[in-house]
Design a protein that fits this description.
Elements lengths: L6 H23 L4 H10 L1 H16 L11 H24 L3 H8 L2 H12 L6 H18 L9 H4 L4 H24 L7 H27 L2 H8 L1 H24 L2 H8 L2 H11 L7 H21 L2
Keywords: Membrane, Transmembrane, Transmembrane helix
Pfam families: EamA
Protein name: EamA family transporter
């Protein structure tokens, strides 16, 4: 199940970098369309991903370039497309009147990922790890409401709303992204999980650049120039995205998808901690409770992963 202890620090670092990248990307989204803002992650992240992979391949751990199975590229393409679809579905949820519900339901990704990895990859988790996943998901759902008080059962009653459907679908495609990434790394003939993760990262980002870049050129050609004009900030987004994805891919290559996702949700802790200690924003009681559940979920999931 867990093939290397590196999955834990890689996942924690990935959570920090993702929170940082999200904060920087908000500046880009103010001047670009949604699709253009999404493209900068891949277009500007690709050179950094190639540089990271080459640095590891030729300087850190020199070795022959491993052979890749026939399904490697298809799984990378599936992962890239699933991530693009998931992001767009989440944005569609944001556009709905009750976007809070959409955001909350998108956080079911960890549970959906656990179920999908069990069905598609044969991964098995202990009862303690499952308890951690459930606690963590409830915690991030609470945090995603942004402190809004929701009556008991309101989320269940909102299942019929478009925002809820988009949110659940977004979580499903994010879970599929993780499963496809894990499967793609298994197609590389190497015992080095970092090498396989970085190889999958480069191919996936390259395919995402082609897919979303082609769409932008076809449907929003006026935004292409704006993407290149924003290179100063977009370059930062690309660097953080490449570093964060390298960590996520390493986690997926070395540990069950569900464990990586539930531990990665500490991103919420980092984000709120930054808001509280740096921006001096006051934490609401519901946010404290949500943070507590996220931390409890991580502890239980880690406890359940110990053999």
């Amino acid at each position: 199940m867990i093939t290397s202890p590196i999955w834990l620090p890689a996942t924690l670092i990935g959570g920090v970098l993702q929170a940082w990248r999200t904060a920087v990307q908000r500046r880009v989204s103010q001047t670009l369309s949604l699709n253009a803002a999404g493209l900068v992650r891949y277009l500007y992240g690709l050179p950094f991903a190639i540089a990271i992979a080459c640095f590891y391949q030729f300087l850190i751990a020199p070795a022959p370039i491993p052979a890749m199975g026939m399904l490697f590229v298809p799984f990378c393409a599936a992962a890239g497309l699933a991530q693009i679809v998931a992001t767009n579905l989440l944005l569609m949820a944001f556009e709905q009147r009750n976007f809070v519900v959409g955001t909350a339901y998108s956080k079911t990704e960890a549970v959906q990922g656990a179920l999908l990895s069990m069905l598609l990859l044969g991964e098995r988790l202990s009862l303690l790890a499952w308890a951690g996943i459930v606690a963590g998901v409830i915690g991030v759902m609470i945090l995603s409401t942004g402190g809004k008080r929701m009556a008991s059962g309101e989320l269940l009653r909102a299942l019929g709303q478009p925002a809820a459907r988009y949110g659940i679908a977004s979580g499903l495609f994010f879970a599929l992204t993780a499963v496809a990434v894990r499967r793609s790394t298994a197609e590389i003939a190497t015992d080095d999980p970092i090498r396989s993760a970085l190889s999958a990262l480069v191919v996936t980002i390259a395919l995402q650049t082609l897919m979303q870049g082609g769409w932008l050129f076809w449907r929003e050609r006026s935004q292409v120039r704006a993407v290149f004009a924003s290179w100063r900030v977009s370059g930062q987004v690309g660097l953080l995205s490449a570093l964060g994805s390298a960590c996520w891919f390493t986690g997926f290559a070395t540990a069950p998808v569900a464990l990586v996702r539930i531990v990665g949700q500490v991103e919420m802790v980092f984000t709120l901690g930054f808001a509280h200690f740096y921006l001096r924003e006051r934490l609401r009681g519901s946010e404290v409770a949500g943070l507590g559940l996220v931390v409890l979920g991580v502890v239980l999931a880690l406890g359940g992963s110990v053999r």
